[in-house]
Design brief:
This protein has 117 residues and is an alpha+beta fold. Helix content is 33%, strand content 9%. It has one domain: LysM domain (Membrane-bound Lytic Murein Transglycosylase D, Chain A, Roll), CATH 3.10.350.10.
């Protein structure tokens, strides 16, 4: 289960500064609800991230939904998106599908993107 942290605006500013981010770079992706209308699991597949509102409250709109294709690996998926540095980050946000045991084509996973300059 992913841990949740509540941070102040000052702490958020410190994080943005530390990683060379601008506030304008945060939350640029479409809302998760909008993405869910376009990206649906195949028959027998599922959304691996559970409650979309919980995910949104944890990471804002820094979430990209991705439909897993047969043959995909977590490391390949992570390497496609700037700001995704660890496979463990993908696993942590998609606890429903037990991704550490492997991917299943047709499932939809959430990828948390940390914007970079």
């Amino acid at each position: 289960m992913a841990k949740r942290f509540i941070i102040s605006e000052e702490e958020k500013g410190d994080i943005l500064s530390k990683y060379g981010l601008l506030k304008e770079q945060m939350n640029r992706l479409p809302d998760i609800d909008v993405q869910m209308k376009k990206i649906k699991p195949d028959i027998g597949g599922k959304y691996c991230f559970g409650n979309p509102q919980r995910l949104k409250s944890e990471v804002g709109n820094n979430v990209l939904l991705y439909k897993v294709k047969s043959g995909d690996t977590l490391s390949e998926i992570a390497s496609k998106y700037p700001g995704v540095t660890f496979v463990d980050e993908i696993i942590a946000h998609n606890e429903i599908c037990q991704l550490s045991k492997g991917l299943r084509g047709g499932d939809v996973i959430a990828i948390v993107i940390l914007p970079r300059m």
